[in-house]
Amino acid sequence: MKQKILIVEDEFIVANDLRIMLEKAGYKVCGIAPSVVKALELIASKEPSWILLDIFLQGDKTGIDLAAQLTGMGIPFIYISANTNQGILEAAKATLPYGFLVKPFREKDLMVMLDIARYRHEQNIKYNQNADSSIHIQIEHILENEGTKSAKLQEFSKLLHPLIPFDFLWISRTVPHTTTKDITLLKESNESFRLISNDELLKETGASARDFKTWNIARIPTNGKSIFNGYDFRRLRMESRWIQHLSDGYKLESALVAEIAKGEETFQIVFFSRLSDVFSKVHTGIINQFCKAFELLIDKALYAPKQDTTNKTAETTALASPPVQKKISPVPVNDFHGIIGNSPLLHNALKKIETVAPDDTSVLILGESGTGKERIAHTIHKLSPRKNKSFITVNCAALPLTLIESELFGHEKGAFTGANEKRMGKFEQADGGSIFLDEIGELPLEAQVKLLRVLQEKEIERLGGNGTKKVDVRIITATNRNLEKEVAEGRFRLDLYYRLNVFPIELPALRHRKEDIPLLTLHFLEKYGKKSSAKVTSISPAALATLQTFNWPGNIRELEHLIERTMLLTDGDVITEIAYPDTNPAAALADDSGSKVKTMEEMERDHILHVLKLCKGKIFGAGGAAEMLNIPSTTLNSKIKKLGIKFEFVK
């Protein structure tokens, strides 16, 4: 039976072109809807199998709003949009679509995306994956977990910021009105968020307590609106002295207002931005999808018991100085194939591993550096029917630009200068087994095209060859990059992203699973106790408590290296003191001046920019940037593209 597709698109010409393409390919188009209201009518009467969904539609509702209802109905959908900025892609991702097609597109692009989407939908049904997106799970974990109110709010803001780009967040109970439980968060220059008390707010804005009490007397006068850009925001300033004062103090230019009702109480959540035209209907759709998260935030933050900082300090002091003779010794740890931990977020990832390992489905492992992505990939292979075949690891970031195709797909003799013999590529070496492509976000666009073909056709073509060769390879990929951002900036193919993202496994950062630090510490004590001459066999409760105060930007790898180094520096058999490189764990990513320490990529970008400016933008030839950096001009061009360096920056 032909699959019925509903097109939800407000541009008739685009919708009609889609209809012609689909009918030519054998699909049945059961209708065209220009708005969410019309789409819901057609869904009820036509019962489509699939929906092609534009984001910006006629009326007040967007495709983001409709997407939440489609997920509830169990109807798979693909977005079609001309907008691919990071915010839109993040918002789209949160609604769990099966694909994203960028306008304008070719007929071939549409068919490929439908094939990928159909495959992903089949896998989703097969594995019965949880409909909740990972961001909902992470928010719930952050708010339910132990920790200070400030820490919870900061982590919540970091997760939400890619979806709603705000610089200032204000949450207030408006019915009945009170300011005693207001929450105010400010985005700092180092991408972190700072919780501001009412007293601090008055001091920073220069307002008196009397002014605050007079001006902040009721809810923001929204008059049914939620988006305040440009003129609307200026009018809002005139209607609210408090908004006027806030915007003057923090240079705010636009606002997005959400109202959350809980029983007889009403709360206003206001996102402010320093940009004048940043919020759109898409963001209201996102807010509608995160209502439960906001309700949980209100429960855990506004109504959280007020913490006694005096008692907390005393408690911390007590933890820091227990009797030295007390110690915690290694005990047998129940691990999952070498993966240590009992936190809910880790268990969620392990459950996914057990589910997907026996199959041949492509897996995308997401997580920060040091979270153990390669170990997860190896575990998936060990638990699969391919366990007795090859497991080939490829670090895409380490492949020389000129040899990527040769390394991955092999080459024939004479294919290029220096190719003196035929060479088997990594995919052929992995035939019958699994290949792990680490740092897949580093793969150049040219190689991405060929990888997509391997995924779809299950065949490779050697460099310089005339024919193709079938390969039976399970592909596991990993990245610490934000692939949606890479797609938005044109460095990663959208169709490849959706093809790889069939079964994502997100590994939590160590700062989100601090309850696992004791188990990991004991594991590393046992591991290095066997390998080294160190006499250390245990750790004191005080030292263990100290480990749990750090933010661990390097994650498990950083913890492991610290334990190994501490064991070598410890006299005796008990670790009683942790010499962490940064004495201020809250500023683990900051230098002495308080500025954020730059990543290697940021430093490389700054250095290349500096050299380009010295060379006045010249790349090739004598006196060019490539010569000064002592690298091939092709490599420099590739880095310039990857790092997003544009000509206008080189001035």
TrEMBL record:
Q: Which GO terms describe its molecular function?
A: ATP binding; DNA binding
- Domain (Response regulatory) spans 4-118
Q: Pfam families of this UniProt entry?
A: AAA_lid_14, Response_reg, Sigma54_activat
The modified positions for 4-aspartylphosphate read D54
The record's InterPro entries line, in alphabetical order, gives: AAA+_ATPase, AAA_lid_NorR, CheY-like_superfamily, Homeodomain-like_sf, P-loop_NTPase, Sig_transdc_resp-reg_receiver, Sigma_54_int, Sigma_54_int_dom_ATP-bd_1
Q: Which PROSITE patterns match?
A: RESPONSE_REGULATORY, SIGMA54_INTERACT_1, SIGMA54_INTERACT_2, SIGMA54_INTERACT_3, SIGMA54_INTERACT_4
Q: Which UniProt keywords apply?
A: ATP-binding, DNA-binding, Nucleotide-binding, Phosphoprotein, Transcription, Transcription regulation
Q: Where is the Sigma-54 factor interaction domain?
A: 339-568
**Transcription regulation keyword on record:** yes
CDD domains, alphabetized: AAA, REC_DC-like
Q: Which GO terms describe its biological process?
A: phosphorelay signal transduction system; regulation of DNA-templated transcription
Is this entry keyworded Ribonucleoprotein?
no
Top-rank taxon: Bacteria
In Swiss-Prot or TrEMBL terms, this protein is called Transcriptional regulator with GAF, ATPase, and Fis domain
State the organism named in the record.
Answer: Pedobacter zeae
Taxon lineage: Bacteria, Pseudomonadati, Bacteroidota, Sphingobacteriia, Sphingobacteriales
